[in-house]
Amino acid sequence: MELLAVPVLLAAMAMALTYLAWTAASRRRRSQCYLLDYVCYKPPDDRKVTTDMGVALAERNKRLGAPELRYLFRLTSRAGLSEQTYLPCGILAGREKCLTHQDALDEMDAFFIDAVAGLFANTGFGPRDVDVLVVNVNMFNPEPCLASRIGHHYGMREDVAAYNVSGMGCSATLVSLDIVQNVMRARSPRPVLALVLSTEVLSPGNYLGTDRSMMLGLCLFRCGGAAALLTSNPALGGRAKMKLRRLVRANVAAADDAYSAIFQREDADNITGFSINKTLPKAAVRAFAANLERVVPYILPVRELLRLATDLIRQKMSRRRRFKIDVNLKTGVDHFCLHSGGVAVIDAVKKNFGLTERDVEPSRMTLHRWGNTSASSVWYVLAYMEAKERLKRGDRVLMVTFGSGFKCNSCMWDVNRDLADKGPWADCIDEYPVQSTANPCLDKYSWMMNDNTDDDSTFPLL
Ligand SMILES: *[C@@H]1O[C@H](CO)[C@@H](O)[C@H](O)[C@H]1NC(C)=O
Ligand SMILES: *[C@@H]1O[C@H](CO)[C@@H](O)[C@H](O)[C@H]1NC(C)=O
Ligand SMILES: *[C@@H]1O[C@H](CO)[C@@H](O)[C@H](O)[C@H]1NC(C)=O
Ligand SMILES: CC(=O)N[C@H]1CO[C@H](CO)[C@@H](O)[C@@H]1O
Record's superkingdom (predicted)? Predict the structure, then answer.
């Protein structure tokens, strides 16, 4: 009886797949979303922060005693960041204890004035061509909102549909793309031009307390941002870099440990900051699995799906309690564009989903060169692949972002033409991939590493 069920199930599965492919194709015909171009912000060189500067910065904070300084240094030494990442002007100027609202606004302005100008120059569009504007900044939401600030700066049209997304963490870039895609579908067949800005403003979130779970950010979070221009106009499709095939969002907030993996709260001294729990890599893997479950039917070839289905049936019939299905993502994906949040998350994803070191190299190198730039990091990762001339016409890129919540949002892009822009990597791409992402100042500060009595509870993160 059960043996008969297999061919019947397979046939049903094949029919379901054909139907899915057909509905997907007809939806695609109705509204496409093309990525025309994107620009990653490269702050001026005087905003680079070296390990020496980081140590000096920590020493200026009189709340930190010797054990905290040692702890911070050990975190820094394992964070996988180079001596080239960027911090906000106010912090570098030594005003970290009294950063103002204006500092945060200045930080935002420096990013978008530079990046948006570059984007318009590259594409030939102007502010008044923009139909939809989406701005995602996590920690900073002034009144009036940042989307209005940008609309005001550029004198955008009155009928521009502006959205500001805040508090949605590092996966907000794909929340913004989701909004864009929905507007495009709703307005179809009228073509829509959308500008998406993703960045983080670090000035308001600078933590000066002594809670170890909240100090990690100081070692990881760095300035960066990206601006992207998207269109649903098929006439512009030929010029586009990539086409969005499928976007899937997953949020595992129902699980306590995932929900509290990244949490904004007050420490024992009532100083606000973001605490990062060591359960974070586990939450990331869990959220990625939840996301994959839904995205896999759209990205893997039918052959691989059938193999999965037979595997599943065979395991069901053998009545084993726990299923372990090995998905071979490589059958449907050529490039993995993973959020470069931290070494531990990259390692956990690599291990759990059978990726190779080359698959995660763009993320690791982005973390090294730019640090964790929050929501914008995936654009730097994509720019790395492009600068290395790895993105060829017809290639499929899976973009995966992780963020507080805990969320995993992913999307599949089809590369439209061979890409080779050097973008923000122009002056350093030949030095990458670096052999080692170890901190170059380890010897100089080896005395800070000697003490083994400190609590290492946050180390699994890095
Ligand atoms: C980390 O999460 C676990 C499980 O949710 C919780 O018991 C623990 O207190 C958290 N640790 C920190 C430092 O927040
Ligand atoms: C923190 O705030 C709470 C509530 O306002 C107060 O009771 C407590 O004394 C404060 N703690 C410190 C260390 O200032
Ligand atoms: C990366 O930075 C963002 C905020 O800028 C933070 O929410 C996230 O936890 C960081 N990722 C890791 C792995 O620490
Ligand atoms: C959805 C969202 O993040 N809305 C924010 C838009 O901006 C205002 C003012 O900056 C915030 O108060 C909202 O939370």
Answer: Eukaryota
